[in-house]
Amino acid sequence: MTSNAGQKPEIEFPDGPAPDELVITDLVVGDGPEAVAGANVEVHYVGVEYDTGEEFDSSWNRGESIEFPLRGLIQGWQDGIPGMKVGGRRQLVVPPALAYGPAGGGHRLSGKTLIFVIDLLATR
């Protein structure tokens, strides 16, 4: 895992079984304002599937950050971003129940445990 905020992270393939609960790991602790539940956040992120290591989404690949309200996101982000400070980088390992639901749920990522590395750029 590269942990330099400001550069696209590379996520190492995890060992062992996927966790059943949200796992939050601060890779870089920011020193700016703290995100709170329900805030709007501006982030850069990359997401990979836990089982395959395959990247399924990345704001870095689009060349621009994205801003959105936390309440509109998957539960793993709603639970995993509050408490993070601007300038920080956090890894979230999100089980299906907190992501896109069980297999067969209609989303291409249903039933999958997901890993996100998120750089918090701003909170409003």
Automatic annotation (TrEMBL):
<comment type="similarity">
    <text>Belongs to the FKBP-type PPIase family.</text>
</comment>
<dbReference type="InterPro" id="IPR001179">
    <property type="entry name" value="PPIase_FKBP_dom"/>
</dbReference>
<dbReference type="GO" id="GO:0003755">
    <property type="term" value="F:peptidyl-prolyl cis-trans isomerase activity"/>
</dbReference>
<dbReference type="InterPro" id="IPR046357">
    <property type="entry name" value="PPIase_dom_sf"/>
</dbReference>
<protein>
    <recommendedName>
        <fullName>Peptidyl-prolyl cis-trans isomerase</fullName>
        <ecNumber>5.2.1.8</ecNumber>
    </recommendedName>
</protein>
<dbReference type="Pfam" id="PF00254">
    <property type="entry name" value="FKBP_C"/>
</dbReference>
<keyword id="KW-0413">Isomerase</keyword>
<keyword id="KW-0697">Rotamase</keyword>
